[in-house]
Amino acid sequence: MKNKKLICLALPIMLSAIGCSNNDIEKEKKTDNLQVAESEKKTETRSDKDVIKSLNEEVDKLHKEKDELEKKIQDEKASKEKISKEKDELEKKIQDEAASKKEVSKEKDVIKKEDKIEDNTRFSTIKEYQETVYKLANNFESELRATKPIIEKDKTLLTNKDELKAQYDKVQVQADKIKSLHPPKEYTDLQIGLIDSLTVYQKAVAGMFSGLDERDKEKVKGYEQSVMDGLAYFKDSLNAIKEIKE
């Protein structure tokens, strides 16, 4: 009997314990499910962020490539425009030089004709010719040096252009005097050298002032170099005359 009573007492307790155990299991299952769901949610959220970040990076990369392409196109366009401008300037310079050479050729023909008909105006000796050339060359150089302080007033030549032009006209007068000389017949080639060099110089000066009138800096710069070339040629021609011994 006692055993039966014990069993009867124990059975509800055991059942109660089992019931508690089942409840705990159910709670654990629910907790696990919530944790799994939360984990999956976090994983999905992380995955979405990674996708958005990747897309943003790709968009930034495309924008960068677009900007680089546009810059490259602009650079190529600027380069082509520069090449085209340089080509036009070169063609213009070639045309000017061709015209200058044509004029020099005409002047050479005139000199050769004058050599035949103007013996009374010709220097009889090379010494007389040299002395006159040196004298006129000194006058030429003096007038040329007088342009320097004028240029120093305004190196842009915007405010002193007219004053400079007036002084260059004085230089041109001396250049024309040198070009008009007639050496002894056997030294005609020396005179042609002087004429060639001074013609290059005079044409360059005219081109330089044309560029100033047009406010074309590149044109002015190009003719400034031609002015220097003409003066260097003139110096070489003078040296050739000085080397002649009677």
From TrEMBL:
<protein>
    <recommendedName>
        <fullName>DUF7018 domain-containing protein</fullName>
    </recommendedName>
</protein>
<feature type="region of interest" description="Disordered">
    <location>
        <begin position="64"/>
        <end position="90"/>
    </location>
</feature>
<feature type="domain" description="DUF7018">
    <location>
        <begin position="127"/>
        <end position="235"/>
    </location>
</feature>
<dbReference type="Pfam" id="PF22872">
    <property type="entry name" value="DUF7018"/>
</dbReference>
<dbReference type="InterPro" id="IPR053854">
    <property type="entry name" value="DUF7018"/>
</dbReference>
